[in-house]
Write a structure and sequence with these properties.
It contains 39 helices and 26 strands. By secondary structure, the chain is of the alpha/beta class.
Amino acid sequence: MPSWHTCRNDMAQSKVMTSPDPTDSTYSSTGQSAESQPPIPGKMETPKLTVRLIRRHAENPRRDWDNDLYHAEHGTWRLTGPAGSGVTSLLLDTVARRIEAGEDPERILIVAASKQAASRLRRGIVARVATSHYKSAGTMVRSVHSLAFALLRRMRDEKLRLITGAEQDAVIRELLKGHSELTGEGQQVQGPQVPITIWPEECRDGIVMVGFARGLRDFLLRTVERGLGPEDLERLGEEHHRPMWVAAGKFLREYEQVMSLGGTHSLSASELVSMALEHDVPPEVSYSTVIVDDAQHLDPKSAELVARFIDQANFAVIAGDPEQSAFRFRGARPQFLQHHPVDHELRLHTSYRVQARPGAPGVHFHRADSTGNMFEFVADRIRRARLIDDVQWRDIAVVVRSVGMITPIRRALLAAGVPVHIDPTDIVLSQQRIVSALILAVRAVHHGLTLAELEELALGPIGGADAVTLRRLLRGLRQVELRRTGAVADAFQTPTRRSLEVLSELVLEPEPDAGLVAEVEQVLTDREQDILGRIRQVIAAGRQGGSVEEVLWEIWSATNLDKHLSAVSMRGGAAGSQADRDLDAVMALFDAAGDWVERRPNSTIDAFITHIEEQELPTGVRDRRLVVPDAVNIVTAHATSGQEWHTVIICGVQEDSWPSLSETGTLFGQEELVDLIDDGIAPGTTIARVTEQLREERRLFHMATSRATNTLIITAVDDPDAAEPQEPSRFVRDYMQPDSPEDPWEPQERVVGEQQIDVDNPLTYTRLLSAPAIVAELRRVVTNPDETQRARNQAARQVARLAEAGVPGAHPDQWWGIAGPSTTRSLPVSSLSPSRIEAGMVCPLRATMSRIFTEEELALPLLRGRLLHAFAEAVALNVDSDVARLKIMDAYREILAAPTWLRSYRLDTWRTVLDRTKMWIETHRHIFEQVGVEVEAEVAVAEGVKLRGRIDRLEKTTDGDYHIIDFKSGTNNPSEKTISDHIQLLTYQLILHHGVFDGTKIRPVRSTESGMTVDGATLVYPEKDTKNIWSITQAAKTEEQLAEFENQLPDLLQALRGPELQAQRNPRCATCKLKPICPVFDTGKWTTEPTTNVS
């Protein structure tokens, strides 16, 4: 099998300069083509690139220091200093001097707190000693866990394996799921040893929740870091009356037994350190020089392991800054840095970075009135730094408080044309778009796809379709289906297969209907057929079978995405950064597959896909990059440790997220255990933990704001009137005081037409420094009749120049709405249903468009309603109610999408709804005479107007009048005041008034007949939580009332036919999917009225 890993690894070995071929049709001078056009594997030619290797500019950052530590030969030192004072540089320069002086590099150990920090230190050492002639059989720089692993491999004969946090999380959740699946009967048979009984009764319902597993994992990590085993946890739990500790101890024993199966002992990072401490450090693995950087990030057990190596060294340095101790949640403590015995101490006092205080040079604060404006400001400042100040993309960082903010700011920066880079070791594989597409392809082969998943596959990297192309493709398939079923003339009344169902047959079936394929080929364009062919090709490749790696490789090869993504990656820019991320994700997937096959050679592809989908944490994949990508770094505040950039933007410093004072680990009493072990504080002792949390949050903010060497920008949203009020954090209020020194950024004025805009005023519009934003502003001026003619002429000249240069969106042919509507024909609507009348009276636009554009799977409420009606019909027709309930429950289980912990509750609730429905029907059998269930009706009520519907239950009173029953799933019922105007019931009454019941259906009344007399109409809500089944009745309407309602229908029918559809603001607008294009709202007017100036 070809080695994708090798190809990517080799490509990363050297810096590559590329230049696109201007004669190639796929090349765009704006660099936007790869971003705006989806990849078309197999059809689109790979861009022609000239690739040449260049020598990287080598600059030795080493310098000589005038202090005793730099020249010392022996002793143990403590080195401290604020961020940017040169602590790490002094350590690396000291190591370089000792190597030049002849010390054996294999006898030097540099300890880092994490894998990422070790990688940075390694690069720093290489830059300083690259010109020196030395050799070493191993690396000088190790993380604490790498050091522990190396020691264990030497001291123990058994096979050891380090598992990632994601794998450990998945194992814990799998064990907890096994606990929850044991039934009460099983507990009685097996006795007290049944796993679920180890957990306190009050928490058993939640053991399958992700949050429970995450809390348990964190608790066990803190436990193992402090050298505690299962027996210790159980003993402490019994002594201090903590049943969760006892349960966690029993679970830890089971976990350890599972992880030791298979001949290989799988260990977490914390377990590695604890196990390493069981052995003394032998003389043959001791070091003469030991350097510890960022010692404030070490937990007590890691510090104990490092101290053993320090004790055997001739020269040692413990370095760090207590003010940057921000990993307490991981068990880190600064005590080792502050209190470990040393011979000498040295403190560096001067920081060479920007000082984060109000009014300091290079420090700026921006207050935005919305999150969107804040993101636009951040993108604008980054682009100005790059294009005007010539700051490299890689020298800029955007810092956010938590991982949750990375995705929205990344999306905003990419949209603005800013290339971004996110640490590939922090990705959750299943959440990566290209990995999700590959997983969907595998599932399509073995299990098929839902319609929503099929649409996702078509829109993703494999299908390569954009939303507009997919819509055209589905419209073509719909035309074919209507033609084949003879339903063209009655398209809006006759139910047919949805176009996504036709698409499913074409791409998922090994041998689709040949006649269907032939008709589709006649209707679809080449581009649309390419999408179908590409998906079929990928799925067919997956059917060939083989091992996990072979199946994945066949599917990946069939996509033909490797060459395209590599070419886009080398071109750089925003599209290049996304291509880099996609390639990193694919590499991580193949790494995971290789590890999986190595551990489980006979496992199936289904098992591997389930393993990937269940991961909730970053996989900690291998980062093979030897060249730092030229892209803006987006990092969390904690990830800034040990790094620096020219320009740093702290984005979204809000009071609700920074400081984050929410307690963690309260379910298991994690902090109480840590306090007990570390400080001897008994559980239950009152401690002001918020104070310590606030201090740590301040240290974290200090660490984030001390990363800039030239410019520091702090942004926050101040919007107290929003639905969810937002205010800047208390940490930045000092920057907002009126008496603070003036910001060195002078306000600028920019003229658009006759309007002056203050670019530093958050209440005015600030145009982003990008081509799309410039085009948008020029188009706005050109089409705005309120602008002066001089301004419009000037804007027209400029937009014409951009159009001539090929800038996307500049040419009027690319302006939405300029060409006018594609057709002015009315829609073929000839009949109305009760639900459509109700929707049309609320908003004709939504009532019509929702029927045309709805291609998604039916919503759960609608399916529940259909199941309820089916059950009511079965009971009314005297079908065995137990059999009917069983079949309806089976159907409900298939459509119910709910987490495991909620699923049983939903099923019990639905079973109760069915029982109450049966009870209501049986109770009312003796009140009225049942004459029909699911009665179809079609009558003519006015010229050209037909009413069609289906009545759940039709009954007759003793007087011969008819009564309408309509069952409703859900609890949203009308009130006594509004029931008289209930449109659906009113429509049913009108149908009966103009119809005659012939025993099976309601037909139009003949000239010699009179309509049916209505007694009333009732809505029944069996799901509503009331003692008696809740129902409400609409009284019988008079002929005058029915005539008044009937007179409204011709106008409504015309409103639904179009071609102009009226939009009406109503309470349902908040959840309407058409809101982005609805002319009632300003955002919709930008689409429907592009030449109108919207204020």
